[in-house]
Structure formats: C-alpha cells, structure tokens
Amino acid sequence: MLYFGGLTPIGVRIRAQMDKLGLNAQFDGTSGIVNDDFIKALGPLAEGVLAFREGAPAEKLPGGKKFLEDYNKQGYTNPTEAYGPFAYAAADILMDAIEKVGPDRKKIIGELAKVKDRDTIVGKVTFDEHGQNTVPVITKYVVQDGKWVLWEDSEYASGKRKLRGK
C-alpha cells in the first residue's frame, strides 16, 4: 500500500507515476483527494483508490440535508466540498462568540474554549484543549465506476471487486 497524506494535484501525479512504474500497490489517501477533480484527472487510474475523511457525508449529518438544500438554492456552479458543513458550523459558532464577547481576539478564543456539546448541523461540537473539534467519525471512501462511494456501499466492501495488490 502507498499512503498519501496530501491534496489532489500531487496525489494525481503520484498515482499516475505508480502506474508508469508498474507499482501494483493500493493507493490510499486522506480527505484532500476526495473530490471530482481527482477522478477527472486520473480517469480509469482512479478506480479502487481509497480515502478517509473526518466526519460523515453531508446528507448523513444531522443538519446535512437542509445544508445541501440551502446550498443548492444559491445556484453555485460547484458542488459542496467535503468540509462545507463543518465550515458552516464553525462560522456559526465563531459569529456567536463574537456577538457575545465583541471583536476581541483573546476573549473570542476564551469563549470558543468553552464550547461543549454545542448542537450544530454536523452534530454536537466540543473543542479539546488544542481547539480541535472532537468529532469521532471517520468515513472510508473508494472510487468505483468514476465516483467516490462510501466503502460500505461499494462492491469492494462486498467482495465483488478486489483492491489493487490483493
């Protein structure tokens, strides 16, 4: 297996080079490659690529369906990206903190440190001592037939198809 922890442009180059070098290993990446551009750039070479993303697909988040409906009503030409709902939730929490304590950076940071089990569109949000959201969900994806598919919904998970190097 070759694990890649970066973004689409370099991931595309590495996966393509694996093919040119005859490296028959599974390509596994992070959320930085889970987008349509990765698949478009690689074409058939993207088939069977794995990636892991923190959180769940937008439609499976507590407020995800409404988020997607509202996003689509705006008429944007690009689809939502992986962390769109998380960015929305973060902006909402941040704006609430600013409204409460004013535009003072230290007070805002202090207010954000108090966030515990806050209901948001992505679920309950709690920030740890480093300011990181403690969302425990990790979702596994695989490219199947030119699309990112949830692992558990894929033919790879059912054993109908095999990953590279297996």
What composes the largest sheet?
5 strands, mixed
Derived structural class: alpha/beta
Shape: elongated
Number of helices: 5
How far apart are the first and last residues' alpha carbons, in Å? 10 Å
- Stretches with pLDDT under 50, minimum 5 residues: none
Please state how the strands of the largest beta sheet are arranged side by side: 1-2-3-6-7
Helical proportion, percent range: 25-40%
Rg (CA only): 19 Å
Beta-strand percentage range: 15-25%
List the helices and strands and how they pair.
Elements: E1 2-4, H1 8-21, E2 27-29, H2 36-42, E3 50-54, H3 64-73, H4 84-101, H5 105-113, E4 118-120, E5 123-125, E6 138-144, E7 147-150
Parallel strand pairs: 1-2, 2-3
Antiparallel strand pairs: 3-6, 4-5, 6-7
Helix pairs in contact: 1-2, 4-5
Characterize the structure shown.
- With 166 residues, this protein is of the alpha/beta class.
- It is 35% helix and 17% strand.
- The protein contains 5 helices and 7 strands.
- It has helices spanning 8-21, 36-42, 64-73, 84-101, 105-113; strands spanning 2-4, 27-29, 50-54, 118-120, 123-125, 138-144, 147-150.
- Strands 1-2-3-6-7 form a 5-stranded mixed β-sheet, with no helix packed on it. It has a two-stranded antiparallel ribbon with strand order 4-5.
- Helix 1 (8-21) links the parallel strand 1 and strand 2.
- Helix 1 packs parallel to helix 2 and helix 4 packs across helix 5.
- The longest helix is centred in the middle third of the chain and has 18 residues, at 84-101.
- The model has no long low-confidence stretch (mean pLDDT 93).
